Amino acid sequence: MSDANLTPKENYTPGNHPDLPPPPGTIGTIGWMRKNLFSTPLNTFLTLLGIATIWVTIPPIFNWAIFNSVWNVASRTECWDQMAYPNEGACWAFVQNRFLLLIYGFYPEPERWRVNLSFLMLILAAVPILFDQVPKRKWALVYSVAFPFIAGWLLVGGFGLNPVDSDKFGGVMLTIIIGVTGITFSLPLGVVLALGRTSNMPALRIVCVLFIEFIRGVPLIALLFIASTMLNYFLPPGSQFNLLMRVLIMVTLFAAAYNAEVVRGGLQGIPRGQFEAADAMGLKYWQAMRLIVLPQALKISIPGIVNNFIGLYKDTTLVLIIGMFDVLQIGRSSLADAEWSGLANEIYLFTALFFFACCFSMSRYSLYLEKKLHTGL
Amino acid sequence: MTEVQTDQNQVRSSREDDDIIQIKEMHKWYGEFHVLKNINLSVKKGERIVICGPSGSGKSTLIRCINRLEEHQKGKIIVDGIELTGDLKHIELIRKEVGMVFQHFNLFPHLTNLENCALAPIWVRKMPRKEAEEIGMNFLERVKIPEQARKFPGQLSGGQQQRVAIARSLCMNPKIMLFDEPTSALDPEMIAEVLDVMVELAEEGMTMLCVTHEMGFAKRVADSVIFMDGGEVIESNEPNEFFNNPKSDRTKLFLSQILAH
Ligand SMILES: Nc1ncnc2c1ncn2[C@@H]1O[C@H](COP(=O)(O)OP(=O)(O)O)[C@@H](O)[C@H]1O
Ligand SMILES: [Mg+2]
After folding, report:
1. What average pLDDT does this structure show over A192-206?
2. B257: buried, middle or exposed (CB in 10 Å: 19+, 13-18, 0-12)?
3. Residue B105 Cα, ligand 2 centroid: separation in angstroms?
4. Which residue minimizes the CA distance to atom 5 of ligand 1?
5. In a domain, A225, yes or no
6. Residues near B261 by Cβ (< 8 Å), separated by ≥ 6?
7. Domain that includes residue A40, residue range
8. Which conformational region is residue B49 in: left (phi greater than 0), alpha (psi within -120 to 50 degrees), or beta?
9. How many domains does chain A have?
10. 0.95 exceeded by the pTM?
11. What is the CATH number of the domain that holds A328?
């Protein structure tokens, strides 16, 4: 067949042809809209429906939350006095009024700098763990490992600082303490449990299986009740084992059992050949695990682990059942104040936004990590 | 270093002659299944041995017994004067001296090619990272892909990956190299580049045990060819005799099958 047959009109000779621009309307904004928003009648309809929904819902929300909202007043009555009708706008003055309580709980005011300092140090400790391009990362990590002890000392006091009883802890501070402790300790513990469960030493395996299955089979609330009451029976009489400490342990164990199962799933995703190659080159069991198997297994497990972390972080609110004042409980009990009662929307929205900000950050971080660790195989 | 050597001298008391690998009346079972039957094999230093045979005949199992990826239940395997027993110390010593190349490469996908190479020298030989990476670079040059050092295995073609895998094994400066069908998972146009590397290695005097059906390779470098079937060594001969004058019917059948195409 000759060229003339292929392109009868132009007699297209073979060789180098310049790149032509694509037809109009297939690229750029118009092309994108055509393809994604108006490709079919149904798609067009859904696009319009979406726009209508946004049109109907967003302005009222903005009006309530921002344009008609009231700040800097001393009670609900004063709030509503400024509105055309009650609850026309948000009474953020309520959240404003309780803000310090929501953040610090009942932590004594003159000592609150210790909470602030701990929070600052927490961020400094988290950075080298979360990002590996930190300069002098090894030393930074030494600090990260030391941080829990420093923070414990700062918050609880003693050794030169005024002691603060841990039942004064509350609000965002308490939520972060429980959440961050649970997250940081449950992952390594989960990894150890997963390795134990997949090990070929029967005794170790059975212990790990029993532990994981027991913890997973019991509601967290039940474990918290156990922490608040039953543990007293097991501890020597008269010993005052701090309630917060018990809660931290329970939450960590609970999350660890879940993480163990996610990590076990990751371990199963590692091909036999990886273990064999590691063995064949003479690596010892722990070297093979640390250098070859776990980095890959944990990478596979990132979505599941972060899912557990997010679940754990939100489950910290359950401590209100055993009488601890986390941020949600502080909000709830603020509603009992006659000056402010009836402003549940404001306080719960604040709480929801706080949790959303934390959990959404975790979710974004996990996406970043997945992308960074992707190496094409 | 000296500590390791005294270690080796202690366990090397069982050394008898110059064979670097001795397998004596070795049997292996998978559960009830008798997969290797009465294997006797000795390999001298610098000897190149090609093992062939139909699929499922126990070739992989045999060479995997040599570095204890599989455990044998009866008989003796002595590698470089060290007997393979349940003793972890013996196993570690042997694995340091025996490199292995797998059909599916088994590179570590989360490490760059250079890190793959430097890993064992750093962690098993306790070498400083810099020195290990120099060695890694050296061997990547030897297998002609130094430019891929900073890439990840997943970004390479199959042939390149297998060459990285060979370089990775060589970085441990092994006395023996085991190959388990190193070219079977490769597209035809990539087989040659891997075989070239293996031929070079053979010509440098490396002791090699190679499971392969590349008969050209066998003819070119092998000192002897072993034919296995049903878990037994059926025939073992130097390549010319083996290909031109096979003794058993099973060997003849096998050769006719693989040479047919
Ligand atoms: N882990 C195992 N458990 C049970 N049987 C196995 C196992 N590995 C291999 N086999 C069996 O042992 C026989 C020999 O396998 P193999 O050594 O891989 O053969 P080859 O490499 O010659 O193809 C095959 O029949 C195979 O099914
Ligand atoms: Mg095989």
Report:
1. 95
2. exposed
3. 13
4. B30
5. yes
6. none
7. 20-67
8. beta
9. 2
10. no
11. 1.10.3720.10
